[in-house]
Predict the 3D structure of the following.
Amino acid sequence: MSSPLVSRVVACAALDDSRRREMLALMQVCYEGVTAERFASDLAEKQLVILLFARAGHELVGFSTVRIAEERLGGRRVDLVFSGD
């Protein structure tokens, strides 16, 4: 069975203004009090975004942002992945 969703991972820096507006609109539908300024600030702290599209029509229906940070743990370097909005 195939998924009704199609995903794509994109660098935040590669998002155009139109896609950013779509993402903001989704956030504002799903969460109260989301401002354009707060959305832009949060996105600026992330490196990647996972975009979810409806297979039929290619409409943006969801997304998650990703930040990767390098830390030291037990004397060795590890990459931490934080996903969220």
